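Reader question, answered in our methods column.
A reader sent in the components of a multi-part assembly and asked whether the whole thing could be modeled at once rather than chain by chain. We filled in our standard form and ran it. Here is what they sent:
COMPLEX SIZE: two components
ENTRIES:
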Amino acid sequence: MYRTAAKRLLGAGLTTSRLLRSTIIPSSYTSNLCTSLMGHTESPIINQSGPTAASSSSSSSTGTGEGPRRKPRPEFEEEQARVLSASLRHVARLGWTEEAMMAGSRDVGVSPSIVGSFSRREAALVEYFMDECLQLLIDRVDSGLDLQNLIPSERIPKLIRIRLEMQVPYISKWPQALSIQAHPVNVPTSFKQRAMLVDEIWHTVGDGASDLDWYVKRTVLGGVYSTTEIYMLTDDSPEYRETWAFLDDRVKDAFDLKKSIQEAKYFAQDIGAGVGKSFQGLMNGVMQTMSTRGGGSTSAF
Amino acid sequence: MALRSISRRFGSRVLSYRSSSVASLHSHATSFGFQQVKEEEKSKLVGNVFTNVASSYDIMNDVMSGGLHRLWKERLVGKLSPFAGMKHLDVAGGTGDVAFRIFDAVNSVKRRALRKVDEDSLEETQIYVCDINPNMLNVGKQRAAERGLGDNKALVWVEGDAEALSFDDNSMDGYTIAFGIRNVTHIEKALAEAYRVLKRGGRFLCLELSHVDIPVFKDVYDLYSFKVIPNLGELIAGDRESYQYLVESVRRFPPQEKFATMIADAGFEKVEYENLVGGVVAIHSAIKL
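And here is the structure of the entire assembly that came back:
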């Protein structure tokens, strides 16, 4: 939970996601510790990243109460995470809505008013879920997922399958989540989350033998992931067999596409070489005739 | 001592931002606009102001802000995000503007959602409107009757002091105070009371006229405040002094950052503020955790 919160706060770069995992000490946690030790009511001003209301400035600070005799109060981030986590249980019934979050807040023992303070309400829930799934995926991989015996074009479907299976409990409401993620306001965050997911998958797969660009790799995988995700929404087969078959086909296509592009490149190079040679020959001929003619003409004088 | 007499001489016509240091004399003196008055007197003087303006309060609001105050209150209620079954307290909300908006938000739009969530129907929405001035409350009750809400149990009109609320600890889901906190003698006490009555997770929202920093606009705003508004007050409400008090009290109120710090000192978390119209109005929001 801290990792994901810290990742989002720091706006983690795509390639540093692995580094962050091992060296997290969330700044908010340490400051809470310091202020409760000092028994101080003065609060450090921590700038919260993330979109706030449209007009100019906003600032946020955390207060920790009267002194050491009161137990240290939870940070807002923690509380938000707890509410969102509890809300997920209600999503299957109520959808990705404020009602689900209010039900979740009641479960935690907090007034539902707190939901009003989450930035971009429903999107907060969806984004929390996406972060949690990514974290689960990383944990699965870390806890020894066996990928050694598989070639890249088989590892990728396996990883995508693990990730998509996490969405199965919410599949009935997943179209709503997708539409929330597609709102222009929410697109930057959802795009970043998907990019992190795709990056993570490529890291795990390890760099296969391919000449494609870094961006192209991730774009292609992003496309495969999204199309499979959408296919899954309308799949009625038992245990989503058809979705996995679709996934395998798409991954194969992607790899075939890679090969085709390579071949096309070589082909173009050959043609270019051929044309270039003949053009060169032509130019040489022209130059020669011109020089002999020129030489001839000058000798006439 | 010297500072006090200097500020008296400066009087109510001259803008002196430097005299804000005098406001730190908490113990026996407080500000009533640009005048220094005894604390006990301030609430009486404020009471007088609002007894005088009660009947034309709404009209004057419209005229002074060009109708914008409605948008500001809409924004406040939007930020609150009211829900069915909530217990809400609107302090200094005499004529009921904010309370009516919350009532509408809860009952019309969200009714569709009510059917979905069964737990909500167990609790009744209660909106308490608290004001220190009975005249303002009467105007509010009248307006409620005009809307057909006179007998509605959801709206409860209570006479009370923001510094000493008669509500139980941890009983409110939301607390709003719109254009009222600058009239309070001890702002810290009002904030502490707000903290006390709110439940865990409850939200504090304050809509208040605040400080403008944008260079040219600031001068335009000052001109408008000190030249136009008292004249409007005289013309429409027949009461120049009350509106003079109003514009002065706005200048004496702490700026956005300072007020945010005061809110955090009261124990609130996630203190934020949003400037509207370049700082003419600011909405401060916070959560009790």
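What stands out: The first strand of chain B starts at residue 29 and ends at 32. The CA atoms of residues 127 and 155 of chain B lie 5 Å apart.
Send us your own complexes using the same form.
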